[in-house]
Amino acid sequence: MKSYLMAFIVGGIICVIGQILMDKTKLTPARILVAFVTAGVFLGALNIYDFVIKYGRAGATVPLPGFGNILAKAAIKEVDAKGLIGAFTGGIKGTAGGVSAAIIFGYITALIFNPKTKD
């Protein structure tokens, strides 16, 4: 039960930060998303995001900073194993499963449901 509560709190805090940025700044949603991924990369590279994941679990890994963290960790691992080329291939290898799942599930959803334009 504690894990669910912590995931809810950590994920909620990330969402609240995004909502505040949308409401109080002139940043577009696309820039906010990029900022979240970039923050996840920096926090992951500095091993700070691991602390957030330790307590927030899915509440920290599912939002966009978690994606950035995965990119950083995978790139660092590949650089250690293969040198400079790993900086380019590591992020792709580390995130391929999640990106593939998003594409597949998005396609299945598009097949099942009939999208409509907003009026």
Amount of helix? over 70%
Characterize the biggest β-sheet: none
Number of strands: 0
> Strand portion, in percent?
under 5%
Question: What's the alpha carbon Rg, rounded to whole Å?
Answer: 17 Å
**Structure classification:** mainly alpha
Can you tell me the residue ranges where pLDDT is under 50 for at least 5 consecutive residues?
A: none
Total domain units: 1
* Distance between the first and last residues' Cα: 42 Å
Question: Quick check: average pLDDT?
Answer: 91
- Shape category: globular
Reading the helices and strands in chain order gives HHHHHH
Helix tally equals 6
Give an overview of the whole structure:
By secondary structure, the protein is mainly alpha-helical. The protein has one domain (2-112). The protein contains 6 helices and no strands. It has helices at residues 2-24, 29-45, 49-56, 58-61, 64-82, 86-112. Helix 2 (29-45) crosses helix 5 and helix 5 (64-82) packs antiparallel against helix 6 (86-112). The chain is globular, with a radius of gyration of 17 Å. The mean pLDDT is 91. The chain crosses the membrane at residues 6-22, 29-49, 94-113.
Summarize the structure.
By secondary structure, the chain is mainly α. The protein has six helices and no strands. It has one domain (2-112).
Please render the helix and strand layout as text:
Layout: H1 2-24, H2 29-45, H3 49-56, H4 58-61, H5 64-82, H6 86-112
Helix pairs in contact: 2-5, 5-6
Transmembrane segments: 6-22, 29-49, 94-113
Keywords: Membrane, Transmembrane, Transmembrane helix
InterPro entries: Spore_V_AE, SpoVA
